């Protein structure tokens, strides 16, 4: 099934980009954090999906993160907007709004027996895809290990500089 040709990629991309722009009020929630997930099915991460389509999605996801950063309420206490692009599982990408500073500070520390994040300092996902942004880029290699399961992916976070 993964090797099937993905049909209607331009149409699906157009609908996905429109859905990213037309989401609800993202800042009205209770709790420590809120996540905006990719509003589509996982066709975006299939191997047969064109690279230009994947890059267009990533560019829009970073732009939406920038837009939400510019719209965050100033009088709401601590509020941090972080965009995450998971590669190659682009469908798992999220935009996260943190309202708890302690949770935000501990979020990037993943050194457990089943999940480990290792900081990437030698490359830039945005530069590889020719995406320009004024946001800070922080990359991690995520290793998931279980009894009969091992998986590696790359997570790129985009956030404001302060």
Structural description of this entry:
The protein is an alpha+beta fold and 162 residues long. The protein has one domain. Helices cover 28% and strands 28% of the residues. It contains four helices and six strands; from the N terminus they run αβαββαβαββ. The protein has helices spanning 9-21, 51-71, 101-107, 125-128, and strands at 33-37, 80-87, 94-98, 115-120, 136-146, 149-159. Strands 1-3-2-6-5-4 form a six-stranded antiparallel beta sheet. A hairpin with a 2-residue loop joins strand 5 and strand 6 (149-159). Helix 1 (9-21) runs parallel beside helix 2. The longest helix is centred in the middle third of the chain and has 21 residues, at 51-71. It is globular, with a radius of gyration of 16 Å. 17% of the residues are buried.
Task: Throw out a few tags for this protein.
alpha+beta, 162 residues, 4 helices, single chain, 28% helix, 6-stranded antiparallel beta sheet, globular
What separation lies between the terminal Cα atoms?
Answer: 44 Å
Total number of β-strand segments?
6
Count of discrete structural domains: 1
Helix content: 25-40%
Shape: globular
Structural class: alpha+beta
Strand content: 25-35%
Strand order of the largest sheet: 1-3-2-6-5-4
Unreliable stretches (pLDDT < 50, length at least 5) are: none
CA radius of gyration is: 16 Å
Whole-number mean pLDDT: 89
Sheet having the most strands: 6 strands, antiparallel
Q: What count of helical segments does DSSP give?
A: 4
What's the order of the H and E elements? HEHEEHEHEE
């Amino acid at each position: 099934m993964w090797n099937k040709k993905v049909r209607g990629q331009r149409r699906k991309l157009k609908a996905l980009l429109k859905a990213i722009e037309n989401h609800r009020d993202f800042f009205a929630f209770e709790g420590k954090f809120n996540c905006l997930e990719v509003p589509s099915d996982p066709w975006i991460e299939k191997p047969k999906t064109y690279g230009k389509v994947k890059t267009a999605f990533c560019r829009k996801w970073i732009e939406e993160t920038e837009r939400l950063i510019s719209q965050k309420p100033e009088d709401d206490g601590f509020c941090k907007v972080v965009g995450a692009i998971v590669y190659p599982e682009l469908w798992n990408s999220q935009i996260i709004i943190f309202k708890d500073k302690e949770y935000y500070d501990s979020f990037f520390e993943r050194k457990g027996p089943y999940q480990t994040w290792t900081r990437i300092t030698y490359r830039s996902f945005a530069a590889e895809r020719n995406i320009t942004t004024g946001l800070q880029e922080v990359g991690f290699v995520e290793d998931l290990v279980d009894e009969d399961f091992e998986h590696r992916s790359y997570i790129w976070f985009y956030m404001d500089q302060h």
